[in-house]
Structure formats: C-alpha cells, structure tokens
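Re: the 568-residue chain
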Amino acid sequence: MLLPEKCLPVALLLAAIAFWPLAVHAGPEALERAKKLISYHEKTIRPLEIAAAEAWWVANISGKDEDFAKKEQAQNKIDEALSNKETFAEIKAVKALKDKGEINDKLVARMVDLLYLMYLEKQVDPELLKKITAKANEVEKKFNVFRANVDGKELTDSEVRKILKTSTDSKTRQAVWEASKKVGAEVAGDLKELVKLRNEMATKLGFKNYHALQLYLNEQNGDELIKLFDELDQLTREPFAKAKAEIDQRLAKNCGIKVEELMPWHVHDPFFQESPAVFDVNLDEPYSKADILKLCKDFYAGIDLPIDSVLARSDLYEKKGKSPHAFCTDINREGDVRVLANIVPNEYWMGTMLHELGHAIYSSKNIPQSVPYLLRSEAHILTTEGVAMQFERFSKSRAWLEKMGVKVENPEAFDVAAEKVRKNQLLIFSRWCQVMLRFEKSMYENPDQDLNKLWWDLVEKYQLLKRPVGRNAPDYASKIHIVSAPVYYHNYMMGQLFASQVHATIAKEVYKGADPQSIIYVGEKKIGEFMKKRVFEPGRTLDWRELTKFATGRELSAKDFAADFGAK
C-alpha cells in the first residue's frame, strides 16, 4: 500500500513556501506565482490523495478495524496538508490577483478558484477535522458490517431486496423492512454528533451551517437549488400521484390486502426510491441466466468506451465485511479506475453495473493526461452522476437487451411493463430526492429538532407513504448517504436532468433527430466519440454550468426530463 508514514515535515513545508510572497502586490508576476502554487499543491497533495484512495478501497472491501484505522490516518494527512495556514494565505493572495484580472490563463485561473475551495473547508482547528474524520469513519464502519437480522438469520442487502420484491406475506415484509432499518438506531447518536461537528466547522468558516458550506464548495447556490426543486415538485406531483395509485392497487392485490392497509414495507425497496416490480412481466427474468459482466464489456466496447481494465481491477461479488453497496473510484487520475459491487443476476444489478461503469468511463480513462492533474476529473458531482444514470436506464429496455443478444420471453408484454417501470422510476426517484434534499437542509439548520418526525413528515408529503402508527425510530439514519456522502443527494436529481438533456442532444445530433425514446446506443461508436469530445475531455476545466452548455448547447433544465416521463 502506498501509504506515507507521515506528512511533509514542518521544516520542509516552510522551506517549500518560503519563496511565496504573502503581500498581494509583491514578488513574481501573478501568472507565474499561480503556477508555482499549483505545482506545490500537486507535489504535496497528489501522493496523499492516492494513498487515501487505496486505503479507502481496502477498508471498504475488508471491513477490518485496522484497515479503517489506516483509512482514517490517510484522510487526516490530507486534512493536515490542506489546513496549512501559510499555504491558504498564498492561495487567497493569488486569488485576489485573479479576481482583479491579473491572471490571463483560463486554466490557471480555474485551478486557483478550485484550490481556494479545496483549502477553505480545512481552515479550522486540525483537531476538529480529526474528530469529524474519526466519527464519520466510525459510522461508515458500522454500516459496512451491519446485516439485517430476522429470527436469528443474517440477511445481506441483496437478500433484503429480494424478500421485499417477492414476498406476499405482510408480516414477513414488515419484519425484514424493520430489521433493515435497525442500523439507523445503531448510528443515530453518532450521526447527530457528526452533524454538530460539521456545523461547528462551517460556522467557524463564516457559513450558517454545513449544508450551506457544502453548496458553496460545490459551486452551487442554495436559493437556486430550492427553486429548481420546487419546480420539479410542481412538475412531478400529479403524474407521481397517478402512477402511485396504479402501483398501490397492484401492491395491495399481490399481498391480499386493501389499498388503505399499505405500509412502507409493501414497496419493493427500503426507501421507495425505485419502481416496484408489480407489472405483468418479471424484469429480472432475462438476467437470471445472463452474464452481467459480459454484457457490460460488450456494450461499452461497442460504443468505443471499453471497460476491461476497470473490471480487471475491481471487486465485484459479495463477501463478509465488505461494503454491501456499490461505488466507482479513480485511484490516481492516471487510469487506475475500480468498481466495488456485489453482483447478483437481476435487473437491479444490471442497472447498477451500467451506472458504476458510467462513472468509470467518465474518469481518467477518458479525460486526457494532458489535462492538469487538478482538473483531471469530472466537471461536477452532478455531471458524473448524470452520465451514470444515462447508461443505467438501458437495463429496463427490451430493445437494448435483444440487441445485446439476451432473449426476452413475451417481448411485447416486457415492453409495456418496462416502459411503465422506466417512467415510474423517474417520477419515484424525483420524489425521493425531494425528501433527501429537504431533510438534510433542515437537519443541518436544526439538528436538535425531532428528526424522526421531520423524516416521516417529508416522506408522507413527497412520497405519499403512510407513517407506521406508533413508530418512533431514526429511520433517516439508515440511509448511508446521509452519513458518508452529506449534502450530495440533490446532485443525483440534477444528474437525471443532465442525463436526459445529453441523451436528447445525442438523439438530435448523432441520430439526426430520432425520438430519444427509440435510441439504445448499441454498437454505435459515434456515442463514444460524442461523450469523449463533449462531456469527458474537458474534465474540470469547465464548471457544471459551462459543461452543460458545452455538451448540449443550453443551460440545465427539466424540459427533457419531463419529456422522458411523458409530461407535456
């Protein structure tokens, strides 16, 4: 493991920055001064970031205490380097020159802005940063080793999902659903402490709370974000209610109960973020004997975005102690890209692998090495999530399956069901994202409020799920993103908008005006060319707003997303 024993000694650090004049108008020309700053950052931080990525990878695979300790140590070294006050003083000085227009190189100016955001977050007491890292690490470890336990039997995450998808017995469903939520009770106290620590950090930096800080660091505006989500609420409210009414009829029939008796455990995943499999065809059936990895290899190779090297480095199947979730990570921004997954042969994992490999192709595999290290990553969280979702959607396409050589029994019925599920999925996910955004915002604004009540108030309002009578449990804390990826989830929804907009642009430009719903990319190498040139290759030289306009010719909007679920 490439884990340095310690950060640069203080004497060496001071020597390295000794040439930096801290007065705004002293020293070398602004451009050369900025270049020296960028070079110093890369030499100092790059090895620490690689070591931390390796440690994070190992810890999530093993679940071992000693590996999580190494992961925590690696993050602490990064935090220590980024918290250096002399370095930040020079960054502020150079940024002031940039803001005055004294740096005429756009890439250098962009890197100065990003350095400011990167170091700003760490300009607090190093001991506070260590506390935050330790607490987050502790909670994440609890998630990794947690398994739902029903009648003495441990269930993996995939087994929980399978029962919620197939069982017709309400008591069994309730027991499994409640068991899956118990991790919330195990981490809720730690999470509350973590929220307060994060808020303490944010207020010391001059922000109202951690939620506001994170939006600023991610080049987003809180008022604009709420306005966008209010518009999405208006856009999706009635179509969602209509779709859910039909789903509810089928859920109730499957379990032999009345619609008014439906509870959250009657939907087919623990959070109602996916479309329940209640229609006339089993979408898992085509995948039950399919080779998911081969399908992924063949598909991505066919669009000239091969992923063989990614899969060769990845860890793809369930094992004890391993994180039960899925993620993609770029270890070194030089092509060492990996996916952690827990594949089982069903539609969920087909979609998940298309998703994670969508992240993989939007990485240093396809961002040129000529792009400076600091800019050699996706433009934004929302753009990489958008690309992942753009490719994930094909798992529900009969035309895609058949073109990939997978036989579909009763294709007409599959088409009808899959199309309904696809549209419902967009609506359901949109409403779920409303809950996540508004819950996190309110939690960081007031962590001492009744968070259990807040959670269920939002679930009832936006997802139309019934609050279990008498339940008073921290169900919000059973969602790992709230702990380990805070103030992140709204980017999934913005990513959906980005995915729809890029797909519509491909339909117009690559497929010469074809209906976006009819195109499936299979074997079309021009897809790879479009994605490389218009989405991947700029890296982070453009911010997310600029990248959206560069890729699609217009600003991000809900227009194409609305068309995808049939809104007029």
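The longest strand covers residues 327-330.
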